[in-house]
Amino acid sequence: MLFSLKTSFLALSWYARMQADTLENQAVAFFNPTVGGGSMLDSAAPPLGEPLNVIISGLSSPAVLTDSGFLNFAQAIGFSTECLGIHLGAPQSANLGDGNGFVNQTVELRQDFGDPDLGTCLESLIGGNHLRVFRQNGPLANSGALFLAVSKEEDVEEGHTIVPDGYDIGRDQLVSSAVGTTSFGGVTYSTAAQNLTGLLPVGSDGINHDIAIDGIVTLLTVTIQ
Ligand SMILES: *[C@@H]1O[C@H](CO)[C@@H](O)[C@H](O)[C@H]1NC(C)=O
Ligand SMILES: *[C@@H]1O[C@H](CO)[C@@H](O)[C@H](O)[C@H]1NC(C)=O
């Protein structure tokens, strides 16, 4: 009796240890920022924010989640670096609940209208789709996922603000150009989309430019072929 109790205890603690190891090493799509005191709205014009309406899953191919790898993927779906490296507007920051607190965007990219070198200059003039990238990699929630604030902008005459419904439209346009098979620079991607509700609020409360959102976040899993 004593012996078997001891054996079961040992077996149990071994099992618990295995579980802990597995959890620690297990890759995840992302962690909900609000659990760690963060938010799915970035800080744009405090207290107002813009929705982080697309997540590149931490289960994507690791290369896609690096700065250069994401840029290549973004070019495959019609985005590129800002016009001649000229940046319009201040950076935004986000708290992804990963223990890093507020961190500025790692990069801002614009729709390139088919020309990765100069097309974004056109976006700066005539408006178009636009994204900011935040990486969830702090010690409390190191998923490696990229959180994107996507929005469609007016032209420069309108002061480069967001078009009506511009957050949802920007998200849907980005997602439709990403889903399926795309390629750039000799790399081919296969991308799957899943809509998530309950992470973002619905409506315009707390949203920059008073533009209502439908509350959907699209999770993209990007796999290099
Ligand atoms: C973001 O960048 C701006 C401008 O470079 C800087 O003033 C600000 O302190 C940065 N914010 C964070 C949270 O790092
Ligand atoms: C996600 O939601 C958008 C907006 O309602 C919709 O257009 C799109 O088809 C949905 N995508 C998926 C994969 O369900």
Short recap of the structure:
The chain is of the alpha+beta class.
Report on the structure:
Residues 1-20 form the signal peptide. Keywords: Signal. Helices cover 24% and strands 25% of the residues. It is α+β, with helices and mostly antiparallel strands. Strand 3 (93-95) and strand 4 form a beta hairpin. The protein is globular, with a radius of gyration of 20 Å. Bound molecules: 2-acetamido-2-deoxy-beta-D-glucopyranose (NAG) (2 copies). One 2-acetamido-2-deoxy-beta-D-glucopyranose binds at residues 172, 193-195, 216, 218.
List keywords for this structure.
two-stranded antiparallel sheet; 4 helices; 225 residues; eight-stranded mixed β-sheet; 10 strands; alpha+beta; binds 2-acetamido-2-deoxy-beta-D-glucopyranose
Task: Write the topology of this structure.
Blueprint (H helix, E strand, L loop, with lengths): L1 H24 L28 E3 L10 H10 L2 E3 L11 E3 L6 E3 L2 E5 L7 H8 L1 E8 L10 E8 L12 H13 L1 E5 L2 E10 L20 E8 L1
Parallel strand pairs: 1-10
Antiparallel strand pairs: 1-7, 2-5, 3-4, 5-6, 6-7, 8-9, 9-10
The structure holds 2-acetamido-2-deoxy-beta-D-glucopyranose (2 copies).
One 2-acetamido-2-deoxy-beta-D-glucopyranose binds next to strand 4.
